[in-house]
Structures are given as C-alpha cells and as structure tokens.
Design a protein that fits this description.
Blueprint lengths: L10 H22 L5 H5 L7 H42 L4 H17 L1
Helix pairs in contact: 3-4
Length: about 110
Amino acid sequence: SPTRRIMLPTLPLVRATAMAARPIVSRAMLSNLPKLASSELCSRDLHTSIVRRDIDQAAKYIGAGAATIGVAGSGAGIGSVFGNLVMGYARNPGLKQQLFSYAILGFALSEAM
C-alpha cells in the first residue's frame, strides 16, 4: 500500500497567508458597513458605569494610602535617631562628634529600611 505524505504548513507560511488575506477581508467588510458621517465616528466614547468609576477611584486611594505607610515608619525612625542624639549630647557634650557620626549612620539605616 502506498504511503501518504501530508504537508503541514509552517508558521511563516501561515503568517504570510494571514497578512495577505487581511486587506481583502478588511475591504469586503468595510464595503458592507453602512456609511456613517464623520461627526458620528468622532463622537463615540467609551462608556463606563458610575459604579466602575467609583471602584477605580477607591482603588487609587487605597494604593496611595499603602504607598505612604512606609514614609510614616521612616519618619518615626529618623525622629527616634535624632531625639536620642539630643539626649546623648545633653548627657555627655564631649562626645558630640562621635554621637553625630552614629546619628548619621542611624539616619541612613532608617531611610534604607
């Protein structure tokens, strides 16, 4: 019995065929559409419901609030570092330079976290 060979189209062949057929289909589809005035074509807007807009606005506010939580923690850490610098300087003014270098290190670590 003779064997049958089936040729399967390759991906580039499929793409080329689709690209060649696109203008023909587009012209055929456009010729059957009713003619619209240019003002009608320009006035079409996307319609979203009020509920959808409210949900989108709420999501924006939640995202903004979540983004500012990290700023509050950083501010508390920096305040703690420099508050302790003032207390340390008040207890021992002779260590001013060493305490300040530790405070700058604490500030950098607090900002990094």
